[in-house]
Amino acid sequence: MKLEYITLAIILIFIAIFAYVSSTGNHEWSGADDQAGNTIDKLTGGTYQPWAHSIWEPPSGEIESLLFALQAAFGAIIIGYFLGYYRGLAKAKASAYPEEKQ
Amino acid sequence: MHIMEGFLPLYWCVLWYALSLPVVAYGAYKMNRIIKENRDLLPLLAVSGAFIFVLSSLKMPSVTGSCSHPTGTGIGAILFGPWITSVLSIIVLIFQAIFLAHGGLTTLGANTFSMGIVGPIVGYLVYKACMNRNVNLYLAVFLAALFADWFTYIVTSIQLALAFPAASGGVLASFEAFLGVFAITQVPLAIVEGAVSALLFKYIVQLRGDVLLKLNVASPDIIKKLQEASA
């Protein structure tokens, strides 16, 4: 269980840092990917024009977060399915051959 | 680390495509072969890909007051190596470019190069170096995933700096500017990614230690010791 606790502690520290940073000063919490676009503007004096545009953009922030949630859900299902499948397999093996403990 | 659609001049797009595509092609060939030889590996390959799917969809707030996302490529790099991980990454990047307007098809080559190739190579090397020095397996996974994540963003900064050198100070000055956007933001995220990767790896060791042996990821002694420790 030790690794679980360490991981949990790291995530809690991460949340605490977020809570602290967001309580001090105004932050936009914008994406670093977009900020790189601003940096390009600054470096080129705003002369660079993107020469291609996304073929499709989610029509709203809600739809964008829907798609992100689907992406995460899809991945999580696969991970959970196989880990659960393996766990069940190991259990079935252990009860079928109890003396063969590794 | 996504360079947005159209935000790289054409010749840089072509260059990064030219560097990435052969790697992805060889990775696809390797992936096909490894699955044909060993159907047993398919679920673990799916889990590695799914892990990239989950982690790269999480845009997390960081100390700098902006948001960024982990990459999730560490596990794939450790289990299957950088070649195959490049294929898993490009699948995720194409999905995000088409459906989420994140990254883009013109910048796909550059984004694949940073997230799918250099990041996993760094992660793989870190893991191997740790194992040669008998570092604890989970700590090795933690460090590998952390550096795979972080170097992805450093490469993105280099790519952008090369394409947009500053008027005064040239490539180095703009490298610094882009690092300012990416590098610090990414540190806490990379640490979380490392921890979560290590945890997932623990479950893989417990459940499919035999596959890890087959993939030559760790020696039998180490796997046995870790399985006994958690049993």
Descriptive account of the structure:
The complex is a heterodimer of chains A (102) and B (231). Chain A is an all-alpha fold and 102 residues long. Chain A has a domain at 61-102. Chain A has helices at 2-23, 32-44, 61-96; one strand spanning 30-31. In chain A, 12% of the residues are buried. Chain B has a two-stranded antiparallel sheet with strand order 1-2. The model of chain B has no long low-confidence stretch (mean pLDDT 94). At the A-B interface, helix 1, strand 1, helix 2 and helix 3 of A face helix 2, strand 1, strand 2, helix 3 and helix 5 of B.
Give a brief rundown of this model.
Chain A has 102 residues and is an all-alpha fold. Chain A contains three helices and one strand. Chain B has 231 residues and is mainly alpha-helical.
Record keyword descriptors for this entry.
A: mainly alpha, 3 helices, B: 231 residues, mainly alpha, Arp2/3 complex 21 kDa subunit ARPC3, two-stranded antiparallel sheet, 2% strand
CATH architecture of chain B: Orthogonal Bundle
The radius of gyration computed from the alpha-carbon positions of chain A, rounded to a whole number of angstroms, is 23 Å
Order of helices and strands of chain A: HEHH
Globally, the shape of chain A reads elongated
Structural class of chain B: mainly alpha
Question: Which band does the percent of strand residues of chain A land in?
Answer: under 5%
Main interface by residue count:
A-B, 58 and 72 residues
Q: What's the β-strand tally of chain A?
A: 1
**Can you summarize the main beta sheet of chain B?**
2 strands, antiparallel
Helix and strand string of chain B, N-terminal first? HHEEHHHHH
The secondary-structure class of chain A comes to: mainly alpha
State the share of residues found in helices of chain B, binned by percent. over 70%
